[in-house]
Write a structure and sequence with these properties.
Elements (H helix, E strand, L loop, with lengths): L5 E10 L2 E11 L4 E5 L6 H8 L7 E6 L2 E3 L4 H6 L2 E5 L10 H6 L5 E2 L4 E2 L1 H14 L16 H15 L3 E5 L7 H16 L3 E5 L3 H7 L2 E6 L2 E7 L5 H9 L4
Parallel strand pairs: 3-10, 3-11, 6-9, 9-10
Antiparallel strand pairs: 1-2, 1-4, 4-5, 7-8, 11-12
Bound molecules: adenosine-5'-diphosphate and magnesium ion (MG).
Length: about 240
Amino acid sequence: MDTPVLQLKNIHKSFGGVTAIQDFSLDLKAGEVVALVGDNGAGKSTLIKIISGVHGPTSGEILLDGAPASFPDASVARERGIEVVYQDLALADQQPVYMNLFLGREPVKGPLRLIDRGRMIAETEKLVKELDVRIPSAKVTIRDLSGGQRQGVAIARATHWARKLVLLDEPTAALGVAETARVESTIQALKARNLAILIISHSLDQVFRLSDRICVLRRGQQIGVRKTSDTNKNEIVAMITGVSE
Ligand SMILES: Nc1ncnc2c1ncn2[C@@H]1O[C@H](COP(=O)(O)OP(=O)(O)O)[C@@H](O)[C@H]1O
Ligand SMILES: [Mg+2]
């Protein structure tokens, strides 16, 4: 009954002679937030790219809802309910929020298959309200929003399409304090929708605020996974750096 949404089993990834990920295994459950931490070059982004179908693993297995899954490319992972939010947002600056929410997946109506703008606007307004993303309207252009509002839109888009899993790669790295707080509450709203969430963050404060478990990577090696409530920053820092005091 409690089959994990995502299971990674003994994932290895090398790029030519460089081993980016070595024997990584992790289960993610619905409604769970797992934080992935580690220094630059630890392999965090590579792992997210493997889960989202950007890179294939060199070896190892990915299971979705208990069934073996392979994603030849990112569009297949998206079809399976996996969405990614990056630090450098993939939003179209000149387009209104509602167009960005549907980019490439616009609903159509009637025999002429015209783009159904009314539906896009209504769905966008419903979603931003639900996630408490504070924007003036669904029709506002992306370039007229703050960084935090844009990231809110990117997360809303991921939420709209993700049926299982949302992967966030440093979603607040470019944001100020207040903007970060808003994005964090949006991430908490995702959790309340029972999605599984994997977040990469450099901010241990953020990791401790948001996550249920913390997974530490060091130079491609999985150092360990801790329940957030059973650990502390000192332990996580020691795991990240390999230096214990
Ligand atoms: N496309 C690629 N080709 C070659 N090496 C790569 C590629 N992507 C990542 N790497 C290497 O894999 C390692 C992990 O990188 P990355 O996953 O980006 O780390 P992190 O996100 O933890 O900072 C690094 O040594 C990096 O140089
Ligand atoms: Mg990275």
